Amino acid sequence: LTSFRKSVMATLRKDLPRIIYGTAWKKDRTTELVLNAVRAGFRAIDTACQPKHYQEELVGEALKMLAEHHQIPREDIFIQTKFTPIGGQDPRSIPYDRHAPLATQVRQSFALSQKNLHTDTIDSLLLHSPLPTHNATMEVWRAFEALHHEGKVHHLGISNIYELDRLRQLYADAHVKPAIVQNRFYEDSGFDVELRIFCREHQIAYQSFWTLTANPQLLAHPSVADVARRLHKTPAQVWLRFAQHLGITPLVGTTSLEHMRHDLALTQFALPLDDVIAIAQLIGEAGMDDVRDGNAAAAEASSEPPGLARSGPRMSDASTAKDV
User: Fold this and answer.
1) Which residues lie below 8 Å from residue 181, measured CB to CB, with a gap of 6+?
2) Half-sphere exposure of 68 (CA within 13 A, CB side)
3) Any idea what DSSP says for residue 251?
4) Which residues of 104-135 are buried (b: 16+ CB within 10 A; e: fewer)?
């Protein structure tokens, strides 16, 4: 096995999900949509302690209802939330003391997440974005590590990190290494080709958001459209399955029950190898031999359930599905 294939298999471990339902910008519909997503089959939910874009407490209401009325306990659901630094918060609704030390801000935000989500433990805690300096980022990361050592968090990660040198520095200085990177997957970042190589080499799961909404030109590309016709799938399904073949865990945030079912059906089919390679060339994916091994690795795991528990952007794309 190449290092690519080994690391793809690592991202498909049973303690990490293969697809995640995202809850940003759902507002008052958050509870309803989380209920729909989990009842449809999703077993991983992404949120944040960021009232500006997320209603974390309404995710918690859905989790309570699922446990009490639908016999789906919290333990069956992978819960991922985030600490959002001040720069990403609405000044009118910062969920912690903005004047407190960073470590205290993390503690206060995490305590509110526990309350909102009705749980003592979080499966994955992400830093919503790096702070302006590496030292400040590491101050937050040390607070994350303390929560991990206390058994309150299983996995640590970071979102919106597009500079490979910053990720390398975080990885080098962290005692508890980042297990997850969550980034926007789109052309403006070069589809994070080099950064994803680093993630594969260090067994860091790469989660993508805006996977559909930021790539309408690729969803409409003849290479994708042709595969969709031949396999009787939607272009969105082909693009998301392609991402999974690269070892990527996509976040989806559709409000449509039909599209939720389409997303959950991804692991019921595999893309032909030649099609994976053709689509990979559209995004400048390096190493076609590695793509071959990654495709085989993803196909090996295609029989696994799509979402396994631990144990201001655009909101629609060409297919009308939504992702976050």
Assistant:
1) 157, 158, 159, 161, 167, 195, 199, 204, 205, 206, 207
2) 7
3) E
4) ebbbbbbebbbebbebebbbbbbbbbbbeeee
Residue pLDDT tens, the chain, 324 long: 344 444 444 445 556 899 999 999 999 999 999 999 999 999 999 999 999 999 999 999 999 999 999 999 999 999 999 999 999 999 999 999 999 999 999 999 999 999 999 999 999 999 999 999 999 999 999 999 999 999 999 999 999 999 999 999 999 999 999 999 999 999 999 999 999 999 999 999 999 999 999 999 999 999 999 999 999 999 999 999 999 999 999 999 999 999 999 999 998 999 999 999 999 999 988 554 455 555 555 545 444 444 443 333 322 233 333 456
pTM (2 d.p.):
0.89
Structure tokens at 315: 């909101």
Residue 238 host element (H or E): helix 235-245
Structure-token match 């910008």, residue found: 25
